[in-house]
Amino acid sequence: MQQATDVKTTNVKRNKRYFIVFICVLIQAIPYCIAQNLQSQMQTPVSQSGVVSEIGFTLLYFSGTLPALFNPAIAKVYDKLKIKYIYVLGLTIAGLGFASYGLAQNAIMFNASAICTQIGTILFTVLSLPIMMDHWFPGEGKGTALGIALAGGSLGNVFLQPVTVNLLANLGWRGTYIALGAAIIIIGVPLALLFIRFPKSDEVVVATSSNKSNGKPARAKFDGLSDKENDKNPIFWIFCAGCALMCFAVVSVSTQAIPVLGQKGFEPAKLGVAGSIFGVACLIGNVAGGKLFDKLGSFVPMVISGISTIAALLIMAFMPNGSAIGFLVPICSGLTVYTITSAPAFMPADVFGQKDGTMKMAKVGMSYALGCSISPLLFSTISSKIGLIASCILFIVVGVVGYGLNLYAQIQAKKMFAQK
């Protein structure tokens, strides 16, 4: 009788944490997707208006990543506020920032809006989402939960892209920015106020290894070094350097795949199919990537990511014009999207320990920001100067170095902490 009661209690606790994942999916699908995924729809009407040139508009992608360089400073807010209020603060800042695009009169104001929107996004997703999942999934399952929650951003694209097109036709770009910015606040803030919280002590479920029946132990958790100690650890900075460099290759593939396929003779209809394939692959990649992290740790998923990214760059460089093999590029990129979504949230604590995990994640996030912010611009600029093939080969070399440093640091970190 007691055993049946315990099982029922455990199931109730699990249902609560799965409900929290569902709430996070909703926040990613609407507020996050609005803040991060819809600018491509805005680029043409804004640049045609003459308020900002097309080149000036693309600078938003760079300026929008600048706040990530201050992740360690932003992370200190978690010692002062409850997670619920951090979400509310982030959603409000992001909503006001996105709406302010509609009031901008020049490139400087547009870039200020981008910085404001990204600060809000850091507060309600980049740092907060991994911290939430860490509290609700202290044992196995954090990677999977992260992957499912992050997949909400891809899911939101399915319905928000056509909604944005309709809004642009009826409200113009200024009205669309304001309406969507208001939606971030109107939808996101109530969700955060009503549901976002850390679990109570009696609500925590520490999952045991799913491989227990096979005699395989769960992966060990460890504290690792403190933030100050970790700053003096050269292995950590080698790891960060590897993250930045591998982002050059990963982000170049994800952002340039469709334009390159267009150069390679894909007609608009085929480009549309390629875009849809990429969206579906991203959904699968986020969830499957989270599972990989949970089951295998950080090393094997990064090996898979490296092979997939290099294969995509080789196809981009050498595929025959119009060849269907080009569809492998969005497939490879989408399936390994976890490299830039779940990985920066999962790997720091997995490789370097849970102690001061928020600060470790914030500093690794800085490296990701550096790599992600300039790689699309560099790829486009370099390919226009030296050609597509030479540019792809250059980014393959950079990617190999980046993955090599990342994997080397993981091996050395494992040895170091095993000795301790």
UniProtKB/TrEMBL annotation:
Pfam families to which the protein is assigned, alphabetical: MFS_1
Which keywords are on file for this protein?
Cell membrane, Membrane, Transmembrane, Transmembrane helix, Transport
Q: Which PROSITE patterns match?
A: MFS (PS50850)
Quote one Gene Ontology molecular function term.
transmembrane transporter activity
**Which top-level group of life is the source organism from?**
Bacteria
SUPFAM superfamilies from the UniProt entry: MFS general substrate transporter (SSF103473)
Keyword field contains Transmembrane helix:
yes
InterPro entries assigned: MFS (IPR011701), MFS_dom (IPR020846), MFS_Efflux_Transporters (IPR050189), MFS_trans_sf (IPR036259)
Task: List the GO terms this entry assigns under cellular component, sorted alphabetically.
Answer: plasma membrane
Q: What membrane topology does the UniProt entry give?
A: Multi-pass membrane protein
Q: Which residues form the Major facilitator superfamily (MFS) profile domain?
A: 17-414
Q: Where are the transmembrane segments?
A: 18-38, 58-78, 85-104, 110-132, 144-163, 175-196, 235-259, 271-289, 296-319, 325-349, 361-382, 388-409
Broad class of the protein's primary localization: membrane
Species this chain originates from: Romboutsia ilealis
The molecule here is called Major facilitator super MFS 1
Q: Does the keyword Transport apply?
A: yes
**Localization annotation:** Cell membrane
